[in-house]
Amino acid sequence: VVDGSFELRLVDENIDNNQLDNNVRWELRSLSDPSQPVIASERTIDRLNEQIIKEYGFSVAILQTPEVGTNEDEENGVVGYEEEYESEEPIQWLTGIPDDLSGGTTSFGDLVYDFVDNSPGGEDADIDPNQAFTNIGPGYFIPYYMANWRRKEDQNRDLQYITPAWSDLSGNNLARGRMKLEDLNNVDIVFTSNKDLWSRCVVIEGANRYYNQSGFLAEDNRRHFDLRSDPNVTKFDNDRDGQPDTDTDDPGTGMGWFPGYAIDVETGQRLNIFFAENSVYNGSLAGDAFVGEPTGGDMMFNPSSQLFLPAGNFVTLFNFLSGGQHMVYVTKTPYDECASFRANFSASASNLLKVRSIPDITWAGFIMSAPGTEMLSYEEGLIPEDVTVKLRVNSPFEVQEGTGAFNGYPTYRFTIENKQSTELSEVEVDDALDMIKVVPNPYYGFSDYEQSQFTNIVKITNLPAKCTVTIFSLDGKFIRQYRRDEIGAVPDGVNRALKRQQISPALEWDLKNNKGIPVASGVYLVHIDAGELGERVIKWFGVNRKFDPSGL
């Protein structure tokens, strides 16, 4: 392996056309030694091919991927979800509400969180037939595109429900026609108590039209997705009253701070991120029913763990507190303190202005704090434990228009340092022998290596290329011996640049002795003699299964 810095760039036949055609290849060049020739890919990226770069000691394998949401596989382009806390034993405070969560009280509760219509027969069932998008990790985050905005009809009865999606009072969502599922970005969402990293953002009203229709009005009669009616706030609580200080340098309403930031991991750009809160839950109604202080109307991202308010004699939408309904919205726009959202979500803005900004939203999260945990005070930074949420979906290689650099073509730089092979030391030899395992151990009648009921197979793995493996019974009787010598072996195949010391670092034992007779159940000793590398003995326990002649 050669130390150095390298650049890998995707190109096509017409490199100046500002788009990736089907015939896309890659080029690799050394930045440490520009005199070295450029290495081009042997095949286009529409076929997976691992190309050995013998000059530098590594390989390159790149494959174009289909757009997310094209139903070309069961996952529909969903790659995965991960939460990464800062400490090894974290306070796992982050939780949320997934689609179809039962309210836990009435049949109405089973429907109030049905905010994605992708179940069989649903309007979006053809987009997401396997519900892959509503099962990304625990389901707290969904593509905003999938969030439902329509009235739900059940036996001619209009059902009220809570959704991250915006809709006007008529139940329309004019923005969806301007959105595409393939606009989903791969993002890291970082929640942190470090105020130096917080994001200036809009704080929008989360009370949807069903609250208005039921007589539960938001503060100052703000509409869904209007800026909150409270004055703009700073990141600080200098008077220590538990509330954010009013921002006297920036008069107006609805501007606050998200405790963290969002990054597009493909471009490295910081993104606009903002949140909602439902000001109906400001404590003016049913104040005694809240556990702790009401958190729906204070311009802070401080979701509680309280899902439901005590029902009394009649359950309404108001009873579904949902932690104050703190929805998180990630966008595809570069971070500019939510400038366009501030203009288009103002209380005086028309729906047509909202339609200009809503298509820029990519992910929506319905976040709560976990039972038994509490958010910190505003002065302390709100977040009990820093955590990064990673959302990943398929994203085809494409031109990033408007960047200027490399004509927007995907370009990657990487550095390799201190990766050359070295002479074996005594410590490394001992560690290498420690890696040898007998699997499975213990063995209870079968293993995943077996192809039928007539075979018994265990593997001795991570063996050196040259060694002698001898198997003994516990009382020292000889059972079986294997002599390995694969030094200099070359695997089958056309790529002669690949040479390695052994074809496989494992051998198979069929649980028979040197006469071909199956061994009895019990404990056995596996002795590995690797010559100058050392020796190792492993105890193995196995239970043989009863012979099954049913397939004969």
Briefly, what is this?
The protein has 552 residues and is mainly beta. It contains five helices and 27 strands.
Notes on the structure:
It is a single chain. By secondary structure, the protein is mainly β. It has five helices and 27 strands. Strands 6, 7, 8, 11, 12, 13, 14, 15, 16, 17 and 18 form an eleven-stranded mixed sheet that branches. Strands 21-27-26-23-24 form a five-stranded mixed sheet, with no helix packed on it. A four-stranded antiparallel sheet has the order 3-2-1-19, with no helix packed on it. The longest helix is centred in the last third of the chain and has 9 residues, at 426-434. Residues 103-107 and 492-499 have low confidence and may be disordered.
- Our count of helices gives 5
Low-confidence stretches: 103-107, 492-499
State the distance separating the first and last CA atoms: 53 Å
Provide the β-strand percentage band.
Answer: 25-35%
Largest sheet: 11 strands, mixed
Mean pLDDT: 87
Shape: globular
Structural class: mainly beta
Give the helix level as a range of percent. under 10%
Number of strand segments: 27
CA-based gyration radius: 30 Å
Task: Note the main attributes of this structure.
27 strands, 552 residues, mainly beta, five-stranded mixed β-sheet, eleven-stranded mixed β-sheet
